Amino acid sequence: MVDANGYRIVAFGQWAGVAGMINILHGLGLRFLALGHHTPFMHIGMAHNYRNVSQAIQAVRDCGYEISMGLMPRSIGPVTFCFTGTGNVSKGAQDIINELPVEYVEPHDLKDVSETGDMNKVYATVLSRHHHLVRKSDGIYDPMEYENHPELYTSHFRTSVSYFFPLTPINSATHSCRILLQPCSAQPLSSSCQSLRELIFQSVAVKNITLPDFVGK
Ligand SMILES: *[C@@H]1O[C@H](CO)[C@@H](O)[C@H](O)[C@H]1NC(C)=O
Ligand SMILES: *[C@@H]1O[C@H](CO)[C@@H](O)[C@H](O)[C@H]1NC(C)=O
Ligand SMILES: CC(=O)N[C@H]1CO[C@H](CO)[C@@H](O)[C@@H]1O
């Protein structure tokens, strides 16, 4: 929603990220349980069950303590999180994950850590526009121009950052908690944003498809 001058007047903020992250950690616990794994994420309830944020954070810390004690099932492999975007929502979500034993890595390191990383922690990466947006004509990213003319840009997320996405059954589970936090701008959906959304949607389908393989591991 924008005002007469095109300025955005409504936005999700930090608390959307905090509540969303708590809920998705809870969901991750249920997801792993459905796959036959009891994980420390089962400590975390839905955000609305907590009286205040410190109570919720305590539950996240309990989970983090068990992860650091090596209680994540080895068959799952290190869990990786990807925050798409660097705004207030992403920051709120990061505030919550920072209560877990987390190591931030560059997007191109995510594949490595998801395969050979430390089981006593989780890994996160913050994906920003410059990681995947390029001008269609010459492949360069100009942040100012992108703001005004997103239609001139495309995203190479699908190809260059594709290692986030489930290529193997194991990865499909470790990536099941990927988060799409960055809202598309108030302008009509740019093609890059659209393709990102499609990809997230697709990855959920891929995860489902590879699920029986994963259970067999
Ligand atoms: C949060 O809620 C818990 C449980 O009711 C309470 O003990 C604690 O004092 C509250 N913390 C804050 C900062 O309000
Ligand atoms: C993000 O949060 C800061 C600090 O609360 C606030 O000043 C800013 O307006 C917020 N940005 C948006 C886009 O809401
Ligand atoms: C839409 C779809 O592919 N659903 C599948 C998800 O995974 C379960 C378990 O393997 C299948 O039974 C569904 O058909």
UniProtKB/TrEMBL annotation:
<keyword id="KW-1133">Transmembrane helix</keyword>
<feature type="transmembrane region" description="Helical">
    <location>
        <begin position="12"/>
        <end position="34"/>
    </location>
</feature>
<dbReference type="InterPro" id="IPR051168">
    <property type="entry name" value="AASS"/>
</dbReference>
<keyword id="KW-0812">Transmembrane</keyword>
<keyword id="KW-0472">Membrane</keyword>
<protein>
    <submittedName>
        <fullName>Uncharacterized protein</fullName>
    </submittedName>
</protein>
<keyword id="KW-0560">Oxidoreductase</keyword>
